[in-house]
Fold this sequence. Notes:
The protein is an alpha/beta fold and about 200 residues long. Helices cover about 45% and strands about 15% of the residues.
Amino acid sequence: xxxxxxxxxLISEFMKYPGVGRKxxxxxxxxxxxxLKNESINDFSQALISAxxxxxxxxxxxxxxxxETCDICSDGTRxxxxxxxxxxxxxxxxxxxxxxxxxxxxxxxGALSPLNGIGPNELNLVSLWKRLEKDDVKEVIxxxxxxxxxxxxxQYIKRVLREVEVLVTRIGYGVPVGSNxxxxxxxxxxxxxxxxxxx
Length: 199
Ligand SMILES: [Zn+2]
């Protein structure tokens, strides 16, 4: 059985999303065409275009924002003596949702992975060193994931920061080895931050 081309095109678009296979994409496409009103389709496509246009990395921490500087960096009540280093902007949302951390963030946009051609230059590291030069940072909390790449990244940062007068800690307890932060629940995350150790 062959779908009409327009429907097939829509299915292909949905299949570009992570975790969406052929069957789910077909369901989404059918739902869009049969159940959604024209108005909803318009809202959906507008939301996609608008998010793509307006969302960009914060000029300080690289977290995604619709402003020049994100709400976290511009929030004067945050503890600017701490910077938590994370791999992705999704991790920032996870930590924020868990609710107890009040310091600042720095999003690397990945982790070191020589096999995939990701070296230090591919990550947001220079901007991190710069922040440590001029800001009043006392502690850098390494919260890269408990994978091989995340561990290598933490080690690399620790090595570079040996020459900088700053406390380097690593979260870990409670976050299972080999896992990403986004899959940890709030309580586990809070524990992991609370129980961070000198690295
Ligand atoms: Zn920011």
